[in-house]
Design a protein that fits this description.
By secondary structure, the protein is mainly alpha-helical. Among the domains are: 48 residues; 63 residues. The protein is 42% helix and 10% strand. It contains 13 helices and ten strands. Helix 2 packs across helix 10.
Length: 423
């Protein structure tokens, strides 16, 4: 009977997933880093309202206070803890240029505990279906209990909505080798990005692909293979052509007598203006790229690290970004990666070593004794765990408890066996 029970226990142990101590530690570290990345750049104790429109912060929506049908509202990290701790919240990850709504006129029965002196509304805040727990073009919750298809969600860097990978027109690169994504709707609204996509996107929208050349000025799609056909791209006049034009003009000037002293000056002014115009055009990276074929598809695009630094920042382009409300694309610090890195750095700076704190509170003798005890513990624990690794067995809770009981027992025997002498 005992043998049968042991066999049954052995079979059950085989069926149960075995997780090593290393796996637990690695998973714990991964979760800690993820939380640090998302929350580390936000203050968990003070409402962010006093900071105005925060460049980027972790946000939440409270379906308890502002259910669907009411006005959308967003709350900061600190308010999610202090004012909405027992409420049902939607985690919005991070969003840019947002001011905390907690306790304003959108919350009928709640006053903010951290910063009650808020304006009735924050007119500069932008809201979407995410604030009611709905995402993507399918307007479904996440996770979706009715969706049996495993699919990750990706945030658009422009509109900041979240999308299923299968609903982006072009599935994400399998290797995940991209930093940011721009959804179909934002690519259509910001059509100038197709010019850059041909050169910068992870999947190049180039002439070799099947597709249509897009008119950047918004006049529509055209099946064009030459960059200058149909007015789709502006081409700067070739330098040798400009030189020939200058020579011809000077030759005509030499063959005809000058009737006034201003003739040469006027001609020089013409060439100078042409030169300034040419330099102005050539300094625009967008205009340079428009001389090459580019394609427009009804898909999202995926972009590598630091792609924003390649965008033109000339006066005309900056004006275009402002009109399209995408000036943030020229700011490298706007990226989620920059926010996450800031959170990790801040967290690492604030994180204190408890052992060092303890050592600093002790005198010299006590410090030496503690360090010796710590080294003994580390050495014995390493030797103890090595046995399990060599035998290929799993470390159980009882094993760890047994180790510390034996360690404490050894320590007491060492202390009791010490002899003290008076000098």
């Amino acid at each position: 009977m005992a043998g049968a029970e042991e066999e049954l226990a052995g079979r059950q142990a085989e069926l149960e997933p075995v997780v090593s101590l290393v796996d637990v530690l690695e998973e714990d570290e991964e979760l800690e880093n993820e939380a640090c990345a998302v929350l580390g750049g936000s203050d968990a104790e003070k409402c962010s309202y006093s900071q105005g429109l925060v460049k980027r912060q972790a946000l939440y929506a409270c379906s308890t206070c502002t259910p669907e049908g009411e006005e959308p509202a967003g709350i900061c990290l600190a308010c999610s803890y202090e004012c909405h701790g027992s409420h049902k919240l939607f985690e919005l990850y991070t969003k840019r240029n947002f001011r905390c709504d907690c306790g304003n006129s959108k919350f009928k029965n709640l006053e903010c505990k951290l910063f009650p002196e808020k304006a009735k509304t924050n007119s500069c805040n932008k809201y979407n279906d995410n604030f009611f727990g709905l995402y993507c073009i399918c307007k479904r919750p996440y996770p979706d209990p009715e969706d049996e298809v495993p699919d990750e969600m990706i945030q658009c860097v422009v509109c900041e909505d979240w999308f299923h990978g299968r609903h982006l027109g072009d599935i994400p690169p399998e290797n995940g080798d991209f930093q940011e994504m721009v959804c179909q709707a934002c690519m259509k609204r910001c059509s100038f990005l197709w010019v850059y996509a041909a050169q910068l996107a992870v999947r190049k929208m180039s002439a070799e692909d099947d597709g249509q050349v897009l008119s950047v000025d918004g006049t529509g799609d055209q099946e064009v293979t030459k960059p200058d056909s149909g007015g789709d791209a502006l081409r700067e006049e070739a330098p040798e052509h400009r030189n020939d034009a200058v020579k011809d003009a000077k030759a005509e000037q030499n063959n005809e007598p000058c009737t006034s002293s201003s003739s040469e000056s006027e001609l020089q002014t013409v060439f100078t203006n042409q030169s300034i115009k040419t330099e102005s055009q050539s300094s625009c990276r967008l205009q340079e790229l428009k001389t090459k074929p580019f394609l427009k598809k009804d898909t999202a695009t995926y972009w590598p690290l630091n792609w924003r630094s390649k965008l033109c920042t000339c006066q005309d382009c900056m004006k275009m970004y402002e009109e399209l409300d995408v000036l943030f694309l020229t700011d490298e610090c706007d990226t989620v990666l920059a926010y996450e890195n800031k959170g990790k750095i801040d967290q690492a700076t604030d994180r204190r070593d408890p052992l060092m704190d303890t050592l600093n509170s002790m005198n010299r003798v006590q410090q030496v004794e503690l360090i010796c005890e710590y080294n003994d513990l580390k050495t014995e624990l390493k030797d103890y765990l090595r046995r399990f690794a060599d035998e290929g067995t799993v470390v159980k809770r009882e094993d760890i408890q047994q180790f510390f009981e034996e360690f404490q027992s050894k320590k007491r025997r060492r202390v009791d066996g010490m002899q003290y002498y008076c000098s």
